[in-house]
Amino acid sequence: MLLVSLMKGKAACPKCKNEFIVDMPETGDKKLVACPDCKHKFNIKAKKDDNLENYSWEEHGEPRKTVLSSIKPKTKKPMIAVILLVCVFSIGITTAFFSEVFVESTMSAASDLGSFGTIELNIISCDNNTIDNATVMINNTIIKQNKDGIYKGERIEPGIKEISISKQDYKSQKLEILVIPFMTSESTIELENGTGPNEKIEYDPLGCSAILIIFSVFAILSIIACLKREHFDIAIMGSFLAIFSFGFFFIGSILSIIAFIIIFKSRDEFKNGNKGKVF
């Protein structure tokens, strides 16, 4: 007959924290026990404590499950955002090539809504001295010089405005300035000594075109992220910055806002590089 040597030890139920005495074989194998109070079953394993004469055990419990990042079932939302952003990019690039028409149409619409802008002109001579009491006209309205030596015009209708500047003993000047709603357009103009007119300085839309192209490119970044359904942060950032590609009558901005909302609502469908296994 085989005799098994037993040892006694104390175990604590992980569920109700009740402590009770357990008989355990000296072999050190695991043993399934049940709590006498709540009847919860769990595994224990002998572990010798050098500071005690008897033995105690620690619960190892069941193996922990591997948890992977969850991706929701695919919907058509990201693809709808892609279509909208393709339109945004196309409109933005087209607008950049016809930026002067875009500026005039946009500023005309802003003017019809009753908005105004402000201009500030610093008129100087060749030796960088302020020219006082020059005649500055915009839309047949004379702009006066203020106490700081700045020629300031307020409540100017938005758009590309032609300004004429004249002063005795100086060549007259004509130039175009873009007046933006709710903002102040500042310019420094140098008048040459002599008589007669200078060459007319026309408004250069190149800077506006460059800005429209840059913000339109952000739509491409968002499109790529949506097609791959990866990197939600790039997708949402690209759609947001694409709002500033504007487009004729702000169609691009409106489509970008819609795409931004759609991407945000479908954020659970994107897989990010920083997501991995959770153990």
Instruction: Output the radius of gyration.
Output: 38 Å
CATH architecture of the largest domain: Sandwich
Looking at the structure, the CATH topology of the largest domain is Immunoglobulin-like
Q: Biggest sheet: strands, sense, closure?
A: 5 strands, mixed
Order of helices and strands: EEEEEHHEEEEEEEHHH
| Overall strand count | 12
Name the shape in a single word: elongated
Percent of residues in beta strands: 25-35%
Task: Tally the helices.
Answer: 5
How many structural domains?
A: 3
CATH class of the largest domain: Mainly Beta
Draw up the topology in text.
Elements: E1 6-12, E2 19-25, E3 31-34, E4 41-48, E5 55-59, H1 77-97, H2 99-112, E6 117-124, E7 135-138, E8 141-143, E9 151-156, E10 159-167, E11 170-179, E12 184-190, H3 206-228, H4 232-241, H5 251-265
Helix pairs in contact: 1-2, 1-3, 1-5, 3-4, 4-5
Structure in words:
The protein is an alpha+beta fold and about 280 residues long. The protein has 3 domains: about 5-60, no CATH class; about 75-95 and about 210-270; about 115-205, Immunoglobulin-like (Sandwich). The protein contains 5 helices and 12 strands. It has helices at about 75-95, 100-110, 205-230, 230-240, 250-265, and strands at about 5-10, 20-25, 30-35, 40-50, 55-60, 115-125, 135-140, 140-145, 150-155, 160-165, 170-180, 185-190. It has a 5-stranded mixed sheet, with no helix packed on it. Strand 4 (about 40-50) and strand 5 form a beta hairpin. Helix 1 runs antiparallel to helix 3. The chain is elongated, with a radius of gyration of 38 Å.
